[in-house]
Protein: G-protein coupled receptors family 1 profile domain-containing protein
Organism: Caenorhabditis remanei
Amino acid sequence: MDDILIYGGVENIPMYNCSARTPEQWSTETGASQPIIGSIQIAYGVVVNLLYIPIIIIMLDKDNFKLSCFKIMFQLAITDFLVIFINSILTGILGIQGAVYCTYPTLIYITGSVAMSLWCSSCCTSLILVCNRLLVMSKPHLESAFFENKKTFLILSCSIIYGICFLFTTPHVYNSKHHAWFFDPMIFPERSKEYDNLPHAINNFSIVVLTCILYIPFYLIVKDNLKGTMTESRLHSTSVLICFSSQVAAIIYVIMNLTEVSAGLILFGHFLWQLVHGAPVFIYIILNDMIRRRFFKMLRCNKNNSTAVGISIINQSNIVPQ
């Protein structure tokens, strides 16, 4: 992002200059319309974000938000909401159009930078949440020392600052031919290696290692507390799925930016990126009893209100003026 300030605009950055062709020519030569995949991704993104809205409202409830875990989950939810808008809704729209970086250079450069920042910030925040849960179940006094009251916000600010740092690294840019986000805008084929993003690779591989290290004691503690219950089985399966998805997505996105891989693997990696940020919605509804009850209660209230309004309108329309 600092290059925008240095050069006075995205299109003025030498490595991102699209002046050799028109946007239409770039789309025709290096892109491909993806109407089916694009439509599916838009639908997925809209559904996930619509479901996330009541969940976010529930998290902000005064009794919930005073708990450190809900503060952390709220930050993750906001991050997920924004990322889903980029990697599903916006990506789907660009895919249907057959867009590439040079079709909308400023839009794609900036959203790619933001997506990079949000991904890395969410990686850090997820680790904070796991640490918080570990301390709550094993060392409550340490949890209070680190997360009591406003201390949680201080720790969460570290993940925000960490994510902001990635705004100043090479951004992801979209390409409809592969229907994924790459560091290489595919303007200068012979210079593709110059777009490599080492901090991103370090972040992703670090997340894989740290997640494995933290999830082992986390699972063992939870298993001991919930031994033999259906909750344990569901929690284990879901935790493994999310952990596995985030790890594989992190690795695939590094590999596909460093070397040539199959189109199927690229699409699978992007799907896992979407799953990592969309799955929490369904996990909250399925596994968190409090959120599930409040969620369906909100839906029933809205349904009842809509029904009441409809009946009122019908009754008013049946009144005959005297």
Notes: The chain has twelve helices and two strands. The radius of gyration is 23 Å.
